[in-house]
Amino acid sequence: LLGKNNIQYAEAVMYRTVGNEFGKDEKLDYDMLIFFSPVGVASLIKNFPDFDQKNIKIATFGVTTAQAVRDAGLRLDLEAPNVMAPSMTAALDMFIQETNKGK
């Protein structure tokens, strides 16, 4: 419609992140949880209000997601991107190498 009327426009791809619903029997026996948006952190808290982090590592991509983890009172173990690792895969590789030193 806009093009037919010679109106300039630019297309934009939009998306909406939504949380998953987990059953009461869902086990959180993961080594690491990785969040790419604050909605993921909110979903964790909503689905597991008594979540006890213990030895589970938490990684985030982006400053707002990292802040959401801190605001939830959780320990942030890996934040990407950073100066040494511009991607989550690079950050994970460095984290694993550092964690496995001396083993």
UniProtKB/TrEMBL annotation:
Q: Give the Pfam families listed for this entry.
A: HEM4
Which Gene3D superfamilies does the UniProt entry name for this protein?
A: 3.40.50.10090
Read off the SUPFAM superfamilies from this record.
HemD-like
Domain (Tetrapyrrole biosynthesis uroporphyrinogen III synthase): residue spans on this chain:
2-89
* GO molecular function terms listed in the Swiss-Prot or TrEMBL record: uroporphyrinogen-III synthase activity
> Among the record's GO biological process terms, what is one?
tetrapyrrole biosynthetic process
Q: What is this protein called?
A: Tetrapyrrole biosynthesis uroporphyrinogen III synthase domain-containing protein
UniProt source species: termite gut metagenome
Query: Where is the organism placed in the taxonomic lineage, from the top?
Result: unclassified sequences, metagenomes, organismal metagenomes
